[in-house]
Amino acid sequence: MSKKEVLIVGPNFYGYNESVAKAFQVKGFKTNIINFEEENIPVTGNKLVDKFLLKAKREYYVNEYGKKVNQEIIDFVDKNNIKNIVVIKGSYITRETLEYIKKKGCKLIMWMMDSVYRESQSMDTLELYDFRFMFEKTDIKKLQETKNIDSYFLPLCYDNFVYDVKGIKRSIDISFVGSFANYEHRVILFEKIIEEFKYCNIEIYGKYLMPSKPKRYIKYYLKGYRKYFKNRFLSPKEVSNLYSRSKICINIHNKQSKEGCNPRFFEIIGTKSFELVENIEYIQKNFNDFL
Q1: What pLDDT score does 291 carry?
Q2: Are 173 and 202 in contact (CB under 8 A)?
Q3: Are 153 and 137 in contact (CB under 8 A)?
Q4: Is the pLDDT assigned to residue 158 strictly greater than 60?
Q5: Report field, pTM of the whole predicted structure over 0.85
Q6: Measured between alpha carbons, how far is 147 from 127 in angstroms, rounded to an integer?
Q7: Are 202 and 226 contacting, i.e. CB atoms less than 8 angstroms apart?
Q8: What digits encode the pLDDT tens for the residues 35-66?
Q9: Percent of the chain with pLDDT strictly greater than 70
Q10: What's residue 3's pLDDT?
Q11: In whole angstroms, what is the distance from residue 82 CA to residue 66 CA?
Q12: Bridge partner list, 107
């Protein structure tokens, strides 16, 4: 087993774990990945059945899935004698698992790609990690003041193997990629943009239609919103192509982002596209020459 080997454990979210692995590979590391699910937790393997079961007994099945994730990590460490583990959000990883693999001589590294204050499981086990990196800079001071835990600022970035300049015609006037699940203000914003600029070529990606929001179905099918809201998600390569074809790329951060930027901020930069984004302090301090 080479010292230059790392296990990356994190959410199965649009290939971000694989992108982190590429960065290690460039530096000569052998990489291994354990992906886990946060939303679509597998129960039977049938998506419709799983959706029903999770709705009926979500807590039970989440706990059972968490046990499987922890056992997979332990089994991998035992079999491969791995010494470096990078955790990107420790959503399921228990204290017992971390203590066990530390006894095996593993170096534990946490990189939060979200505010640690939104992730209770990670927060409860932070002191067990050898190094802790935060994407939200304000978390560093809060952790020191409230828990006496040291951490370091490590901003997010983009995968230059995916997000690059395509040299294609920018035929889309306005584009957006993101979630609408718990962000009604985003829906309101884009509905206003559609009404104001209905003759523009607008492409909005994310799940717009939801049973809990019946009025959206009326707008989608009867008001012609399906022309703008594509009601699906994109792969990283599709996102890169979308940005490269867009004249204006809108990027919206979560409210907790004060001195940290989401991956979209950097991914749009990677395609050298025009980005419309909130006035965040971190952007002002570090990208003022481009504003």
Answers
A1: 62
A2: yes
A3: yes
A4: yes
A5: yes
A6: 9
A7: no
A8: 999 888 999 988 889 888 988 999 999 999 99
A9: 98
A10: 65
A11: 21
A12: 84
